[in-house]
From TrEMBL, chain A:
MF term (GO), any: structural constituent of ribosome
SUPFAM superfamilies in UniProt: Ribosomal protein S8 (SSF56047)
Protein task: Component of the mitochondrial ribosome (mitoribosome), a dedicated translation machinery responsible for the synthesis of mitochondrial genome-encoded proteins, including at least some of the essential transmembrane subunits of the mitochondrial respiratory chain. The mitoribosomes are attached to the mitochondrial inner membrane and translation products are cotranslationally integrated into the membrane.
InterPro entries named among the record's database cross-references: Ribosomal_uS8 (IPR000630), Ribosomal_uS8_sf (IPR035987)
Record flagged with keyword Transit peptide: no
Name of the protein: Small ribosomal subunit protein uS8m
Cellular component GO terms held in the UniProt record: mitochondrion; ribonucleoprotein complex; ribosome
From TrEMBL, chain B:
Keywords attached to this entry: Mitochondrion, Ribonucleoprotein, Ribosomal protein
Residues in S5 DRBM domain copies: 271-334
Key word Ribonucleoprotein present: yes
A molecular function GO annotation: structural constituent of ribosome
Top-level lineage group: Eukaryota
Regions annotated as coiled coil: none
Protein localization: Mitochondrion
Function: Component of the mitochondrial ribosome (mitoribosome), a dedicated translation machinery responsible for the synthesis of mitochondrial genome-encoded proteins, including at least some of the essential transmembrane subunits of the mitochondrial respiratory chain. The mitoribosomes are attached to the mitochondrial inner membrane and translation products are cotranslationally integrated into the membrane.
GO cellular component terms attached to this protein's record: mitochondrial small ribosomal subunit
Name recorded for this polypeptide: Small ribosomal subunit protein uS5m
Organism name: Aspergillus ellipticus CBS 707.79
GO terms, biological process: translation
PANTHER family reported in the protein's UniProt record: MITOCHONDRIAL RIBOSOMAL PROTEIN S5
Amino acid sequence: MSLVNLAHVCSHLNNATKARLGITSIPNTKLHLKLCLALQNDGLISSVVRGGLTAPPTHPLLGTPMPNDEVEKVEPVTQSNVASRRLWLGLKYWQSESVMGKLSLVSKPTRRVTIDVQGLRRVVRGERSETVEGLRNPGELLYLSTDRGVLEARECVEKKLGGLILCRVR
Amino acid sequence: MSLARPARCLFCSFSRAASAAPRVPRRQFHASPLQLNDNKPKVPEMPVPVPDAKAVEAKTSEVQTSEVKTLRQIYEEMKPEDFKPYTEEEKAVLKEHYSPEQIAAIEAGEAAIDPKDLAEQFHFRRNPMQIKYLDDFSVIEPVVDHHVRGAKSNSDYNAKLKSEEDFVEDFAEYFDKMPEDADAAHWVRFLETTRMTLGKEESELDPHSALVPDIFEHGESLERIGQPPPKRIMVRNRMGELEEQKPEEIPEVDERLYKLTGYSRQYISSLYIKTLVSRRVSNQTRLGKIPSVSILAISGNRDGMLGMGIGKSQEATDAIQQAKARAIMNMTHVPRYEGRTIFGDVEGKVGATELKIMQRPPGFGLRCQHLIFEMCRAAGIHDIAARISRARNPMNTAKAAYEALMSQRNPEDIARARGKKIVDVRGVYYSGRSLPRAADK
């Protein structure tokens, strides 16, 4: 579980949204995939497709990568092509602003930050817990890597889970 | 005009009714002015004819017989029976002179006073305030009374002067109708009543003239001749004295501002406007330094609107005016959470000035630097904390705070963008009812 790669992903997504790209790709790892699915679940990105080095077929109207195109099916992952797989993300914009604000890493490659449920409760309420700042802005999200996959902080509190804090979305 | 006619007020020729009898010119043997009415008060003990019925309101048969009595005799012999209600004949006579409403008022007045009281309390005034003469107030006396201008409808633009033939006809008619025993008064009456013009009678007797008696009466202007003067509104000044309210002059600059912004004068006067930063700046030219003043002003309605403007001029007052006008023109809406604080923590950066404005719970107050305090006050924000890192240049601080306040994100927009539902947990806590706004408290 490389946080270095995750840091690169965060920066890349920030750059891509600043450049107002509609579609971008990140390296394919299990952690990235789980995080992207969590982001998609919260409505920050429109689609996640595991494709090859070239962009998968896009939706004719939305312009986002489609996992279930009828004409051009997504190439299944095999042992031979898994190394060349990438995650293709459809980025969202609303009123000429990026839906996903700034992504920033909380745990650093040299210092991992874990948090328990009590601390997470404080954070969700907007208070500071040790080094972790509270979620004080409207729509601010915090993603954690837990036993049950990558979850948002509020979900973790609901499920009474602690874990490793990955990144924060403003 | 006939020379036989006595000299009268040149403008006011309407008071012919003032003299019932024709004024026959008599030869004067002394230089003192001719006194037509004897204005001296009558000596009470002298036998006098009973005063005018109108003055006394006595309509007794005794008085009408008009035996010569002294005032004292009248005064002493007054009985309640003297005050009788109007007879039918008298009422018929009254009807000729008064409208039904006026007669009703007269009758109501008669009924209101007990004849017994009248008889007991009647007396002639002897106090210093008594009126020294008996006069007919129904007639306008040209010298004594205030002049009244003839109505516009009196004018007859087609009136013509009578020709010689017309006068000959008049004379012929006069001699035709002349009684056997004609005297000088008859001749004078003819001269006085003979008209000089053909057309409306009022046009000759009482024409409308803008010259009567002054060019304008009090409160009149060229646009409103003959109309009542406008109402004077009295207001108390700062010293507590009553004085007339003068219509305020609206400067041209303000007038333009109302047009540009579309705000009413009342609304703009209700705004919270303040100059936050003022500094002297100078432009270096080959002729030397040209100093001027730079002003930063803010304006707000204390309920969610905030604007900022900068004005520069060589005159400080001009710069202030510019800055304030621009601040009003730039006013925009500032999002506020519950009408008291901001949505989330926001950051602003201008130059080397970086600051962070943080939302706070109700009752926290404005714990921030004075410039940010004034801006929050103008915008109607009550709970806030702010921290300025790095440079604290006043002008940049104000600009950065404005930028930060304007960079708030609206939760509803976020929800729409993400396709998710966002619920304000604070609002839901009280069974879904929204909290009373700070402004409503």
